[in-house]
Amino acid sequence: MYWAVLLGSAVLEAVWATALSQGAYVLFLVAATLSMVGLSIGMKRIPVGTAYAVWVGIGAALTVTWAMITGEETLSAWKIVFLTGIIACVIGLKFLKSGASGVDGPPLVGGAGAVPELKPGAVGGAVAGGVETSS
């Protein structure tokens, strides 16, 4: 349910962006409000970074697609390739495991398997950071 609401709010993002560009301010206000509410609901169960990336990615891709359909923007093969890339990345985010660390694998900082913390004097001699100073 949360993913469906998030996708619906992403569609509304494209609606409000298009409405704003055309001066349809009432439609802009309604769509923007509903879009933000949907984003907020989606963020209750979907990690904030993922939810925001999906919302922006889908909204931007739909906005550009609509502009190309209506002739406001030129159609090109490269735009289609890159828009497809955005959509593929959004689909990838949907299927990532979101456990305690976010993705499978060791964390980069702290915990088992992480890069060890360096102690003062561990790099470049007897002082932290390897910068030797005169005593």
From TrEMBL:
SUPFAM superfamilies: Multidrug resistance efflux transporter EmrE. One of its GO terms (molecular function) is transmembrane transporter activity. The chain crosses the membrane at residues 27-43, 50-69, 75-96. It is found in: Cell membrane. Keywords: Cell membrane, Membrane, Transmembrane, Transmembrane helix, Transport. Gene3D superfamilies: 1.10.3730.20. One of its GO terms (cellular component) is plasma membrane. It is a multi-pass membrane protein. Pfam families: Multi_Drug_Res. Belongs to the drug/metabolite transporter (DMT) superfamily. Small multidrug resistance (SMR) (TC 2.A.7.1) family. PANTHER family: GUANIDINIUM EXPORTER, SMR FAMILY PROTON-DEPENDENT DRUG EFFLUX TRANSPORTER SUGE. This is Quaternary ammonium compound-resistance protein SugE. It comes from Lentzea waywayandensis.
